[in-house]
Specification:
The protein has about 400 residues and is of the alpha+beta class. The chain folds into three domains: about 5-140, no CATH class; about 155-230, 2-Layer Sandwich (Phosphorylase Kinase, domain 1), CATH 3.30.200.20; about 230-390, Transferase(Phosphotransferase) domain 1 (Transferase(Phosphotransferase), domain 1, Orthogonal Bundle), CATH 1.10.510.10. The protein is built from eleven helices and 13 strands. A six-stranded antiparallel beta sheet has the order 5-6-7-8-10-9, covered by helices on one side. Strands 11-12-13 form a three-stranded antiparallel beta sheet. It has a two-stranded antiparallel sheet with strand order 1-3. A hairpin with a 5-residue loop joins strand 12 (about 280) and strand 13 (about 290). Helix 7 runs antiparallel to helix 9 (about 330-345), helix 7 packs antiparallel against helix 11 and helix 10 (about 360-365) runs antiparallel to helix 11 (about 380-390). The longest helix has 26 residues, at about 35-60. It starts with a helix and ends with a helix.
Length: about 400
């Protein structure tokens, strides 16, 4: 017999018999507007976990013994959290707990006793107890049609990135046994911005390159699109691998040259090259594939979406674009940004003042020359200089 989730929540709330002042209640107001009891149950768990963990920390500092009554109370609240988390995981009430609290709960379960109190281990994780922000967050979920059947499957989605323009969620599709992303437009976008967001999808859909992030379908109702998942940003990969060998660094650069040459051959200018818009997919054989994403600022032939061009520009773009206008962006501004990306890939440097090698300095200074006529005039020219320099 199917579970009535509202009744389940009400039973859990009623079982608490909580009569104290609920100081955390305001943290969960509007958390789940359809069920006030659910909000209050989370608020009670939050407040009581904080109280019991604080008491545990104080006892660790004194005699190292956690009282029997408090041990039982904490076990009861842990069980309440785990029961609700499990039963509600595939519903609109699905939620998760702060990762530090989860670590402390898992550790506590290993030593808490039902009777006689509990000996607190010396290596008990010390976390910051949150009094003014929620420790619980709602998981979001989506329904995805299963290929070749009439069924749909519900998947939890996890927010992995957010900007003023869109949110990016990750989920694992059980049918394909692989991760995908959903890029969803922010709710406060204007109609013009929503048109640009959809156009980003349409442009990426038209580009057929292994180095452009693949997109699959657009949802008109939610203003979101589905795309392949990449493992990490260029920024993270280079920053976390300072000893990366020169062959892998050159491979990334050569993939970027192929990617941008292809994009330009189709009449597009990306206009937003950055260390975070360039992604990487890693494979078991040790190879990594560059994936260019975020075509929201793309310049295309005969576009009518130019009215907001002067207000937005990419993070690595030439500051002189403010004077000439973003709508006048040309290929020499793309090679400007690409030069800085190449510098970062090959050296890890983001500041040209720190360049010590004269050959590399000359390579970069040409790419970002104030006189646009003296810059690399296209990707092929930049690639030729790259091969001579590195």
């Amino acid at each position: 017999m199917p579970i009535n989730y509202e009744n389940f929540i009400e039973q859990k709330y009623d079982s608490l018999h909580f009569s104290e002042v609920l100081r955390t209640e305001s943290l969960y107001k509007g958390f789940c507007s359809s069920n006030e009891r659910f909000e209050k149950t989370l608020a009670i768990m939050h407040q009581e976990l904080n109280r019991l963990f604080q008491f545990m920390y104080s006892k660790q500092q004194s005699n190292g013994h956690f009282n029997a009554a408090e041990s039982r109370e904490l076990l009861e609240y842990i069980k309440l959290y785990e029961d609700m988390n499990y039963v509600l995981k595939e519903t609109g009430y699905s939620f998760e707990i702060n990762s530090d609290y989860k670590q402390l709960i898992d550790c506590s379960k290993s030593f808490l006793q039902e009777s006689g109190g509990s000996t607190i281990p010396h290596d008990l994780p010390k976390i910051e107890l949150l009094n003014y922000e929620p420790i619980f967050t709602m998981r979001q979920s989506i329904s995805i049609p299963t290929p070749s059947t009439a069924e749909t499957r519900r998947y939890q989605i996890k927010l992995i990135g957010e900007g003023s323009y869109a949110q990016v969620f990750k989920y694992k599709d059980e049918f394909y046994n692989k991760n995908f992303i959903i890029k969803r437009a922010q709710k406060n976008l204007s109609q013009k911005e929503l048109e640009r967001f959809k156009r980003e999808y349409e442009v990426m859909r038209q580009l057929h390159s292994p180095h452009v992030l693949e997109v699959y379908r657009y949802d008109e109702t939610r203003h979101e699109y589905y795309a392949e998942y990449a493992d990490e940003t260029l920024l993270r990969y280079i920053s976390h691998n300072p000893n990366l060998d020169i062959y892998k660094r050159k491979s990334i650069c050569n993939q970027l040259f192929r990617c941008l040459s292809y994009v330009h051959s189709k009449g597009y200018l990306h206009r937003d090259l950055s260390f975070t818009n360039i992604l990487l997919v890693h494979y078991e054989d040790g190879n990594s594939m560059v994936k260019l994403s975020d075509f929201g600022l793309v310049k295309e032939p005969d576009s009518t979406l130019t009215s907001i061009d002067s207000e937005i520009k990419g993070s690595l773009n030439d500051s002189n674009l403010r004077a000439i206008g973003f709508s006048n962006f040309s290929i020499v501004y793309e090679t400007y940004a690409l030069t800085l990306v190449i510098l970062f890939v090959m050296t890890g440097l983001q500041n040209i003042e720190k360049i010590r090698d004269e050959k590399i300095r000359n390579f970069v200074l040409k790419g970002i020359n104030h006189d646009t006529n003296k810059r690399y005039q296209n990707v092929d020219e930049l690639k030729a200089a790259f091969n001579e320099t590195f």
